[in-house]
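Operator note (shift B, R.M.): manual run for non-specific serine/threonine protein kinase requested after the automated queue skipped it. Running by hand, logging everything below so the morning shift can see what happened. Input copied straight from the record, untouched. If output looks odd, do not overwrite the archive copy; leave it for review.
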Amino acid sequence: MWFLGFSTNNPRNFLILGAIFLVILLAVALRKFALCLEARGNAEEGEKSKQGNRGLCCSAVIRTYGLEEMKMATRNFRIRIGVGATSFVYLAELGDGRLGAVKRVMEERGGSKKMFLDEVSVLLRISHPNLQLLLLEYVPNRSLFDRMHTYSGQAAGPLMWSNRLNIALDVARALDYLHSEADPPIIHRDVKSSNILLIDNDHAKLADFGLCKLGHDTYFSQTPCIVKGSLGYIDVNYVRTGLVSPKSDVYSFGVLLLELITGLKSMQGSTTLPEWTEEQRKSRDTGELVGLLDPKLKGNANVEQLKVLVDLANSTLIENIEGRPSMRQIVDRISSCIEAQPYPELPV
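Run finished. Output pasted below as returned.
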């Protein structure tokens, strides 16, 4: 009798057949073990990926464009829709019919390839509905500065008091995210009305990360750096010491609050808005506080909410940075202010 080519009449062939079966069994067992390890490895890798994504706040997909593509999309950079500290922003028509905003770093404005790559590196770490990136979407209503301080912006009528509260809350949430949830934390360093893009009168995005700085293990920077920012918004402590921290953004946000309250620009001649309004905003007299209000509102504002915003502005603008609130505390106060029962409007 023959089995697998071996005669069963020879006893030695049984040993050979036994060895063959043993090799087959070992091969099957090893294969199953390998599959088990592979499945476990995939599961661990997936878990690490999830944890990594939580740390980075987003799973970014990078799409790069050639210069010729951008020239075609922007019609050779024809329509300028914004100006950054070191860059220009142009309108682009993307291939799928969407509109985009292309930021072009300009050497003649002090920009460099390194600054651009640093900004990209930061932006790939963050994802938040109130943050605007390099090329994601075109925000047609332009900036808060345009809306409040240009003829075309004011032609649409003044921003109502409730609009201003909602815009302040959106910007506060964006900064809170950068300071508290981004990993590592990010200091924007250029919070100003021209970097606040309006989706509509109620919703805004914080844009332009060209001057941003990554946070450190310690909450406050211990090494002085070159002071950067925009006149009227720069933290006075940062100017004096060269030390930047998240509280530097808090100061700039306080200037923005004053801008929303008063309707005035950050500079009044050679005087900053915090200096210009100091006596009135620190007064305990309600009439003095009401006098800060943008005349274009014609008194259509909420007196208790006005008090909260002025008090917040005062706390953000003190020179002692440790005494300033965090952006999380500011978000909580503005949210509570908006959610509170409405108070009587100010008299016209």
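Quick read of the result: The domain at 141-339 is CATH 1.10.510.10 (Transferase(Phosphotransferase); domain 1). The radius of gyration is 30 Å.
Leaving this for review. - R.M.
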